[in-house]
Write a structure and sequence with these properties.
The protein is mainly α. About 55% of the residues lie in helices and about 5% in strands. The termini are far apart.
Length: about 90
């Protein structure tokens, strides 16, 4: 009888109180382009240098970021304005 009660209580706890264990974790709100730009702009000059844009990436990721920087820098001034940074990637 005790084991039956324990089993029922366990089942109740899992179905009622334990559902949060199986729920998907809440995602952090997606940052805006302005927030991402400001976070990368280490010196606060409202422009991103290549070093700021690439950040701490290494290896292949660093190479890709460097190439992307070159493509985004439309005016060739070796920095990205917010307008240059905030473009929708082509698919």
């Amino acid at each position: 009888m005790k084991s039956m009660i324990c089993s029922m209580l366990t089942l109740m706890i899992l179905t009622v109180g334990g559902t949060h264990v199986f729920a998907a974790p809440e995602k952090a709100p997606k940052k805006t382009a302005e927030e991402r730009f400001a976070k990368l702009d280490a010196n606060g000059d409202k422009k991103l240098s290549e070093d700021e844009f690439v950040g701490k990436k290494t290896g292949e990721a660093k190479d890709k970021a460097g190439k992307r920087f070159g493509k985004l820098d439309k005016d060739g001034d070796k920095s990205l304005s917010f307008e240059e940074f905030n473009v929708t990637p082509k698919k």
